[in-house]
Amino acid sequence: MNSMIILHEYPLNMVEHFGFRRFMAALQPLSNVVSRNTVKSDIMKIYDFEKDKIMKVFDKNSSKFAIIIDMWTTNNQKKGYMAITTHFIDESWKLQSRLVRFIYVPCPHTSAVICDALVDCLMDWNLDHKLSTLTLDNCSTNYALINDIFRKLDKKAVWLDGSLLHMRCCAHILNLIVRDGLDVIEKPTIMDMATKMLEKFEKYWSQINGIMGVATVLDPRYKLKLLHYYFPLLYSSEDAKKEIERIKEICVDLVNEYYVKFKASGGIGGSFQSLESSFKNPDEVDSMSNYDKFVTSETEHDTFKTELDSYLEERVLPRNVNVEFDILSWWKNSLKYPILQLVAQDVLAIPISTVASESTFNTSGRFVSPHRSRLHHDTLEALMCSQDWLWAASKGIGASATTRSECSTVLDDVDNEKGEEVPELDMDAFETEL
Q: DSSP characters for 34-81?
């Protein structure tokens, strides 16, 4: 019953409603219906139990975590909440996401206030050394937020000295572009609208195409070929060459950074050195030992360079529009590229938007449901996070048989114009909303 209340957003005091108690008595006359306070206490226990499970999964997972920050408000606009969601690829190469905090953020929502809440969350969940990117919308507060967070993080824990830390929300950028165009729709020519939209596009595109370019290169169907095809359509010939070279440099720098960590963990050269030592007489002094170290170092460096080069030199995979390509499965089995495999596991987990695609042009924001907005902050966070975790767990247990109606909440009880129930949707399509 407690899970039911969490999953479908039933009010906690439902257990004290006359109709519910009458139903339970008819179902089982000897049943002892609990009180609202008992339900609340049990829900907090579920939250603590599920949180402990998720934290163990995070600690065990070696890949990085991409973070999305999304602001919610109550209907009366008097309370603000910050939802912090992690995205990562687990050890089985499955894309995962978990809501880790739903924090009440008192006004004013300055960058310093949001930064403190976010850093506390990262520390609490041991994610401060596993952070890849922060996906945010493009308000001025978030630009200051990135600077504040960067000053509090270990510089060695973020990619390329933090140059890739800020991922701008593509949906919000598209929203801004369209709104700027609509602002001049009444002008005599479409040229004014197009010019305004192009200015906005160019302002933000240069700031987001770095990590998106790397993700494109890591797709074996495209690699650098897609950049060579599209960039000349977006830039002048000279600028296109510069942008392609910039993306390639980011790839090289990322692989170099992972190479150092991979080498430190014994990933390269470890087997060779252990084999060599097994044939060596411990009493024998080798005057050429320093030379061997030099050769090993050079060989390892060549290995690093040729892995990226070999991947790029290989022919791209043929595209097949009739067959869905599973890029995560491809990289999972690409054992000949161990360093690139690590890079792909982290880069391909990064979301490019803070909202679902169908919400791109929604300007109303995210709202807490009316009956939940009156709950205490801790209770609301426990409900929101537990709901996310329980739905995620349900996907692995008979999720294919789950329908939209089974996943709906009290706010989704809708008939169509003929008074008939709204048809159920395919769960595969619905899972993207979860």
A: PPHHHHHHHHHHHHHHHHHHHHHHHHH--S-EEEEEEEEEETTS--EE
By DSSP bridging, strand 131-136 and strand 65-74 are: parallel
Low-confidence ranges of the chain (pLDDT < 50): 269-280, 282, 357-364, 397-404, 422, 424-434
Phi, psi dihedral angles at 9 (to 5 degrees): 60, 35
Measured distance CA(434)–CA(236) in Å, rounded: 41
Look at residue 267 in the predicted model and tell me its pLDDT: 63
Q: How far apart are CA 401 and CA 395, in angstroms?
A: 10
Taking the complete model, does pTM exceed 0.70, yes or no?
A: yes
Give CA–CA dist 428/433, Å, rounded.
Answer: 10
Residue 163 backbone class (left: φ over 0; alpha: ψ -120 to 50; beta: rest): alpha
Beta bridge mates, 68: 85, 135
Q: What local confidence, expressed as pLDDT, does residue 42 receive? A: 95
CA 155 to chain centre: 21
What residues have CB less than 8 Å from 185, skipping those under 6 apart?
193
* Whether 71 contacts 85, CB under 8 Å: no
Cβ burial of 375 (10 Å; 0-12, 13-18, 19+) is middle
Q: Which two tokens stand for residue 17?
A: 């409603």
Residue type, 171: A
Residues 6+ away with beta carbon under 8 Å from 13? 36
pLDDT (0 to 100) of residue 29: 87
- The pLDDT, as a whole number, for residue 143 is 79
pLDDT of residue 146: 86
Helix-then-strand count for the chain, H and E? 16, 6
Give residue 274's pLDDT: 36
- Residues 267-287 have pLDDT tens digits of 654 433 433 443 345 455 566
